[in-house]
UniProtKB/TrEMBL annotation:
InterPro entries: Methyltransf_25 (IPR041698), SAM-dependent_MTases_sf (IPR029063). Residues 1-10 have a biased composition (Basic and acidic residues). Keywords: Methyltransferase, Transferase. Coiled coil: none annotated. Transmembrane segments: none annotated. Residues 1-26 are annotated as: Disordered. One of its GO terms (molecular function) is methyltransferase activity. Residues 65-162 form the Methyltransferase domain. This is Methyltransferase domain-containing protein. It comes from the Bacteria.
Length: 305
């Protein structure tokens, strides 16, 4: 079940991002996370705008833009902004998120060329009324068991000359110095390792899961597409973080604490709890050295026939 999460951050996040882990499990309640998904995507809008401007150099007038795994539609609406002559279709498996997407499009004045399709990927793409000039999948592919087959299905819904753009990979985000002044240095690196393990479990538990080398240009080529391209975009929100960035960091670390916190040793767990305690002067709510730094990679390829 691929549901959108355009919050775009770390490679594999049990907190939120690639997977919104609940407890030790890997089930994801996307509707519960709607508010977080929206606020994250809004915070990360500079990255998306830069990526869309890059895509627009090769796809200036796509006609139909499909956001495959759109979530609440923040990035879908950015597509409508970036491509003012295009029709945009947000596709997602969670109907309440699509309702939020439609409401956002109406508020922004693009509702007349904005549609939604509810259903699981990639099957829901079969309900499009025409092929896409640009199909965008932002960290939705890795929620599908057979990624190679899904990419072939995505490619099959492109118009001749249409582009598939896949946001996968990048680098784990950083929010804090290596040495926090409390606990053992290197906490975020240890959280990254636990999140990688969580992501591997999530992938293994998907229906029809197939292990795949994550060479995205090679997988795009195997799907019959040509002219692969790759570019990485940087989000750099330096310290001291503003309230919106600080709220994102707190929400992210809270989800990580819920998802993988029990796997931490006692010292790291205590450090994380202090970081999340608003009354603690060392918490991310007040400390002056909180920042957001991340790198997000987009892979593209074109249908030739």
């Amino acid at each position: 079940m691929a549901h959108g999460h355009h919050e775009g951050h770390n490679q594999h996040q049990a907190g939120h991002g690639h997977g919104h882990g609940h407890g030790h499990g890997t089930d994801i309640d996307w509707n519960e996370l709607a508010g977080l998904l929206e606020s994250q995507a809004e915070l990360f809008a500079p990255v998306y705008r830069e990526a869309l401007a890059w895509l627009g150099q090769d796809v200036p007038e796509p006609g139909l833009v499909v956001d495959a795994g759109s979530g609440p539609g923040v990035v879908s609406c950015l597509f409508a902004e970036a491509f003012p002559t295009a029709r945009v279709v947000a596709v997602d498996g969670t109907a309440p998120l699509l309702e939020r997407a439609r409401d956002r499009a109406a508020r922004l004045g693009v509702g007349d060329r904005f549609d939604t399709v509810a259903g699981d990927l990639p099957e829901a793409l079969g309900r499009l009324d025409r092929p896409a000039g640009l199909l965008w999948a932002s960290r939705s592919l890795h929620h599908l068991g057979d990624q190679r087959a899904a990419l072939a299905a995505f490619a099959g819904h492109l118009a001749p000359g249409g582009t598939l753009a896949l946001l996968e990979g990048g680098l784990p985000s950083r929010f804090l110095p290596r040495d926090l002044g409390i606990g053992r240095p290197g906490l975020q690196a240890r959280l990254d390792a636990l999140e990688e393990e969580w992501f591997a479990r999530m992938r293994a538990e998907l229906p029809g899961s197939v292990a795949e080398t994550e060479d995205w240009p090679a997988l795009l080529t195997a799907a019959g597409l040509k002219h692969t391209g790759t570019r990485t975009f940087l989000l750099d929100l330096p310290a001291p973080a503003d309230d919106r960035a600080r709220a994102y960091v707190a929400a992210h670390l809270s989800r990580v604490r819920e998802g993988v916190g029990e796997a931490l040793d006692a010292e790291d767990r205590a450090t994380l709890d202090r970081l999340l305690d608003p009354s603690d002067p060392a918490s991310v709510h007040v400390r002056p050295d909180v920042f957001v730094l991340g790198a997000y990679t987009v892979h593209t390829a074109v249908r030739q026939d």
